[in-house]
Amino acid sequence: MAGHISPKRVYYTIFGALMVLTATTLAVAFINLGALNFPIALGIAITKATLVILFFMHLKYSSRLTKLVCGSAFFFLIVLFGLTLSDYLSRGWSTAPGGFTTGAGTRVTIGPATAEPAEGAPEAPAGAEY
Amino acid sequence: MTTTVLPRVNYLNVRTTVASWMLTKDHKRIGVMYLVVVALAFFLGSIMAAGVRIELTTPQGDFVSADTYNRMFTMHAVFMVFFVLIPVVPAILGNFAMPLMIGAKDVAFPTLNLMSWYIFVIGFLFTVAAMVLGGVDTGWTFYTPYSSNASTSNVLLAGLGIFITGFSSILTGLNFMVTIHRMRAPGMTWFRLPLFVWAIYATSLVMILGTPVVAITLFMVVLERAFGFGIFDPRLGGDPVLFQHLFWFYSHPAVYIMILPPMGVISEVIACFSRKNVFGYSFVAFSSLAIAVFGFLVWAHHLFVSGISPYSAMIFSFLSFAVAIPSAVKTFNWTATLYKGAIWWRAPIMWVFGFLGLFLVGGLTGLFLASLGLDVHLHDTYFVVAHFHYIMVGGAIMGFFAGLHYWWPKMTGRMYSNSMAMLAALLVFVGFNLTFFPQFILGYLGMPRRYHVYPEEFQVLNVLSSAGASILAVGYTLIALYLVYSLFRGEEAGANPWLATGLEWKTESPPSPHNFPETPIVNEGAYEYSKREIKVA
Ligand SMILES: [Cu+2]
What we know:
The complex is a heterodimer of chains A (130) and B (537). By secondary structure, chain A is mainly α. Helices cover 52% and strands 0% of the residues of chain A. Among the domains of chain A are: 1-57, no CATH class; 63-89. Chain A has helices spanning 8-29, 37-56, 64-88. Chain B is an all-alpha fold and 537 residues long. Helix content of chain B is 66%, strand content 0%. Chain B contains 14 helices and no strands. Chain B has helices at residues 18-22, 27-55, 66-101, 110-132, 155-182, 195-227, 240-273, 281-294, 310-338, 347-370, 372-378, 382-412, 418-445, 459-489. Chain B is globular. At the A-B interface, helix 3 of A face helix 7 and helix 9 of B. Copper (II) ion binds next to helix 7 of chain B.
């Protein structure tokens, strides 16, 4: 929408920040941070997207209704990721002390492809049919 | 009964060429055009259902092969879910009535509205092509790997058709939201809005936020099928359960796209035909929003036996129980509205009573399925089939017919035969229960869904179910007959045959092309029935 005009300086600064963050993503990709690999990559990506939306797309200068609409989209993204991860992150957990596990270790999880089968996890029951 | 002509210029007779329809930007005409396409999809879906019920009258697979049976139930569901249940109330009744109800001349973006219809038709044609070329055998849920590397049927075409249709849904939702925000008549504050408009608003929210996810998910299946991406294939590092998460993230809220607008219809009709203000207006309004938001938090109750983490399953089970609360708020408030009302026995309220009974059964059996332990036994049995038909047909279709019978005089300017309509409501109610109640018992006894053969001992209940389906068919045919008849021979309805409040009844029937001669001004709530005379039928 018409209205706000940002000084060129702002655009150059944000562009610079985006470039630095891109370089960071690349650099971090060469370092194995274990479980942190995925959260860090995603964190940088979210920061970049936020910068683009706030400055390049002028959300920072928009009405509160526009901000609410944009915020609710993010909220639903968090719901989608968060509740899906509630499954993936807890799949390997045992349900009873010394009892059975879900056999989740046999599944591939989101994120680093280094997931090992949980210790002592039995194989998934062969030919389980429903 | 007198045959009268409607000489006045209205939205139907202002221009009558085919081009005038195909290029119209009038929300009322677009609503009617959706009605035509949806009726066609309903017919195709019903033919498929008839095939399924004929096959299941005997335990042996003597009518069709297992493969054909898979294709029939899949195409039944694809047509019914994506081309009937989702658009039936928002696209037809929402388009026709919502702008009238808020006192607007049209929706906010009339051209976009026409474009949404064309997108819908293109998606529909893709899916019809998929059916003509042999159908799809994956089930409407398109679970991987059935849909990715194990299927030889027309998944690409049907998936693309649904993908395209999704955009129609998103654009319609967007259009309605902007319309409700920007186009309300002077004095039409948020808390004077008819509850149907609140319901349409909540539905639009779900359409905008949910539909992109299913579109992307189906697109990923297309990528996996066509180019060998490994998103859902474990051999390539993917996970088939991820598909189920993404699919149900949309498809559970989609149930609320189906049921929220009919709930709005129920509020309108119940107020009018019990001549009372809706009990607890703001609670009913906000429960629509609560359903829309909380509906997004429960999807994995479809995955309890798919191998998800038991901890996650507990969270989703709890949230699924919680989402029953706003639905219960509505049901109790409707009942309280009826209490001590002056019930006016006309066809629309008959459909409402049907809705209340069937939705109650459908909703409460949903709680059975949300229970972690019981779901292990009932999952993928006919109990589930019966449950969601009670919600989707018992809820959405009964609600749609309530609305269609309520607004038909406004849409066409003519009355249908009330006694015929009462009979049809009764036939559909009886036929529906006879079709689906035996399926609860079948599922409880352990008959799995999606098989074309079954053990001998299930035959009696299956025959009952098929008999019920034929009564349903008679009921639906009857509706088509007397409604079409009313177009030609129906009595002239007049502006307000139900003596209803609401702006749509303040203009003529059928309304003029621009709805109101002058912009209406609102100075009271939506349901000021107690102040009006009661018409004794
Ligand atoms: Cu669900």
